[in-house]
Amino acid sequence: MSGYGTTAGDNPLQTAVWRLRSRGCWTDAAALLAPRAADPAAALERAGLLVERCLFTGDGWAEAEDALRTAEAVARDDEERGGAACERGRLAYAATRLGVRDRADEARSALGRAAALLAPTSPGRPLLDFRRGLVAEHIADSPQAARAAYRRAHDGATAQGDTLLLSFTWHHQAGLALREGELAEARHGFSESLRIREELGYLIGTAPTLAALADCEPEPEASRLRAEAGRLFRLLGGVPVWLESQLAAHIPPQPSPAQPEPAA
């Protein structure tokens, strides 16, 4: 899943799926695709929606596994099997990253299988490169390998016009720049990611980018950005779940209320 629905044209189903997905209504979006689950493309898209729900909410693992098994079962060629393997790698990455279960080996194996199945010119290659970058950065702790993977994904997304994936590649390259103390580069990357997500109406991705951009800005702009991120976070029902701790880390502790003097 990257830009499904963002260029849906006159397809009312894809438009409806995108609108629901962009607001964090993954279950409802997946339900729209359920009647077409025997179609490999629809089955893969439905699995991607439910995997994304796991990554953003930390919930729904069984439903995502079921949808993935369906996508794997109906895949007919290497392109479709590679796409399903890429989603399985993302699910294993999400479980590992959120501390649900260590599935790091499964994530690497599934993404490696996807790389073997997808042709070098496959439209799924940029998304695969991006997900391999996530594993390199957050599981293998290899920022150099992650940067190379993000750059390949960025170039591929640019060539394909996948603007939503570009918002992710900008964001994660900026995160590496911030990690290395390159504030100007980080600010530029987060700003580009935010611009794209606001233009697309990708609400569930806007709050994390606002919070990330705040880490590059001086006060009072940093506090304003975090306040806006917090407002969106609450509006969307506390999604993504991992953003709460990031926002809370910047809230100053409140003084304890004064205790009344004991009665004489």
Description:
- With 264 residues, the protein is mostly helical.
- The protein is 70% helix and 0% strand.
- The chain is globular and about 55 Å long.
- Residues 1-8 and 253-264 have low confidence and may be disordered.
Average pLDDT for all residues? 92
Question: How many strands, which pairing sense, and closed or not: the largest β-sheet?
Answer: none
The structure class reads: mainly alpha
The low-confidence runs, each spanning 5 or more residues with pLDDT under 50, are: 1-8, 253-264
Order of helices and strands: HHHHHHHHHHHHH
Number of DSSP strand runs: 0
Shape: globular
State the separation between the terminal residues, measured CA to CA: 69 Å
Work out the radius of gyration.
20 Å
Strand content: under 5%
Relative helix content: over 70%
H/I helix tally: 13
Which helices and strands, and how do they pair?
Layout: H1 12-22, H2 26-33, H3 40-57, H4 61-74, H5 78-97, H6 104-117, H7 125-138, H8 143-160, H9 163-179, H10 183-200, H11 203-214, H12 221-235, H13 243-248
Helix pairs in contact: 1-2, 2-3, 3-4, 3-5, 4-5, 5-6, 5-7, 6-7, 7-8, 7-9, 8-9, 9-10, 10-11, 11-12
Summarize the structure.
This protein is mostly helical. The chain is built from 13 helices and no strands. The protein starts with 11 loop residues before the first helix and ends in a 16-residue tail after the last helix.
